[in-house]
Amino acid sequence: MKCLTRKTQDWCSLHQVLSPSQKGFTPFDGVIEHNFLLAQHLETARRNHSDSFVAWLDISNAFGSVPHSVIFQALKNIGFDEDFLTLIQNVYMGSCTSIISDEGLTDPIPILRGVKQGCPLSGILFNIAINHVLIEVQKDQPTHCILAFADDLVLL
């Protein structure tokens, strides 16, 4: 999976398809730039004696709530080829779980949402799945700034 993760990250970097506001699970960027931008935003407001509004958001159960169909569609939308899409679908399709109870083991329960816990590929797949939202929010409003680190968002 590490090889597949690296290939996915490299492809996204080469084609510049992910929002630059997303710093989570990226190989080169981190929170330093976000910290600087937030500090500059607050300092500018203080210096100009103007109001500053900042909202911190943490998406509830973010990694467990993304439908697999959204992940697959997002991969297709940003331009991954059919072979790669099929590979990812094969990793996720047919996933199921069972519950052990006093009566025994349940029938298999299909897992239709969420990225796989502990899988190195999960972070980049999550980023790809929410990428459209980050881009659309900022598309026509350059004054709307989002600082994203995976599912943690700061709205300026």
Automatic annotation (TrEMBL):
Which superkingdom, per the lineage? Eukaryota
Q: InterPro entries, per this entry? A: DNA/RNA_pol_sf (IPR043502), RT_dom (IPR000477)
Q: Where is the Reverse transcriptase domain?
A: 1-156
Q: A GO BP term, please?
A: DNA biosynthetic process
Which Pfam families does this chain map to? Answer: RVT_1
Q: What is this protein called?
A: Retrovirus-related Pol polyprotein from type-2 retrotransposable element R2DM
Q: Which organism is it from?
A: Nephila pilipes
